[in-house]
Request: fold
Amino acid sequence: MDFLTNFGLTDFIFNSGLALIGVAVGIIFGAIPGMSATMAVAVFLPMTYVFKEVTPALYLLLGLYVGGISGGLIPAILINVPGTPSSVCTGFDGYPMARRGESERALKIGVVASFFGGIISLLVLAFLTPPLARMAIKFSAIEKFLIILFAMTVIAALSKGSMTKGVFAGFLGVLFSLIGELSLNNKMRMVPDAVEIFNYKLNLAQDLRSGFQLLPLLIGLFAITQMFQEAEKGMLSNNLNEGVTVEGARKFSFKDFAGQFVNVVRSSLIGTFMGILPGVGGSAASLIAYSQAKSWSKDPDKLGTGAPEGLIASESSNNGLTGGALVPLLSLGIPGDATTAVLIGAFMLHKIEVGPLFIQKYGDTWNQILIALLICNVIMFLIMFFSLKYMSNVVKIKSSRLYPLIMLMCVVGAYATRSGIMFDVWCLLIFGLLGYVMNKLGLPTAPFLIGFILGKDLEKYFIEAVRNNNYNLMVFFERPIAIGIWVLIALFLGYSIWDNFKGGSLEKAGIKG
Reply:
């Protein structure tokens, strides 16, 4: 495939400049808690109207996409606040490394893993799109339900040693996710129409019809909960670098990736595959890749205490999402995640139809997408790898100065989730308090988050499957692909139960969410 046919040097420089701007701005959006790659792409989409062709717009928007996904590792590692939902597992090992004075090392490991994940997903997109698209199109609601059910088994792996609490927290998350999903629920819900709190009229019935949004929940569980814990210790006397051991701290070396080849490839492919499945998203990809790294690790107890292995798994998987999410978009016309759904606007603006005939009809645009992703990943690596030394200095800022700013950004991010709905701000505080209470009770928040992320699609595809098959539950055991997924579920659950009895716990591994 000749990518550079009929491609002028001037256009290449111009488009590369747009990619540079997009990546830089995307990193900023990803690094600010409450912002996201989706928000960055949505904000800049109207600005692409000035381009006569779709190619420059794609360079800019894909740069925002790659930068936004990658930028989330910065606050996750430095202050244990995931900048984006896909970086939720990055802080599990990145933050303990930062507390040991190895923030720069952790950041660079994350950047290199992100680069590898992006490149591997690009290769999958370039060379395996047709067979992967054919595989995805064969999935009915039955297979989609079972795949999500398989993803739910991650709860068992993350709850090692405290499986009962983990499973309870996971299904509690599913319960929260189902609020407002079916119209029948709105008729049966025993919720008053309005409740007045501090002279503010809270229309619970109306607000709950749309359910809880992921972004306020995510920020609340991690950012607000973290602030409650810091407040309990006394923020005025604590700095973010209090307790950081600088003496003897290890520096970054590519030797950190020794023996991690399988982990990188496996995690990247997990992220790519989860991106191919519409609606699953980067959060689930990161969590599944992390649990797999823990399951296959020679020393699983180290994960969660500052092990590069866990950090590599999280970052390579969430960047693997970028190429994977484009597969169903370009081959089936179905966006793989929220960001690619916004990207459809760019194609519609230039009257380009995405779908099975996209590569045949728009071969040049297809080639440019591959080149743009490659350039954006290279730019992301160069920008982040060589500037992280200065970014890591944020740990020197007093928490009494930093946390009010973070709180402000979190509130603004939650308020902007649906263009100004105050209910999302209340949810931010409620889930922050819930996370704080769950930590006090020893309930892990990571399984709760998994349940919330996967719960909606779990119910949706189950209902769709049984309705389309005359409410016959045996349909989940009749198709060959379904039987194969059941076997995987049984094997993984069996291993998790055995591993749970063998010893260890979520708290011992340092994974408290």
The radius of gyration is 22 Å. The first helix runs from residue 9 to 31. Residues 264 and 316 are 6 Å apart (CA to CA).
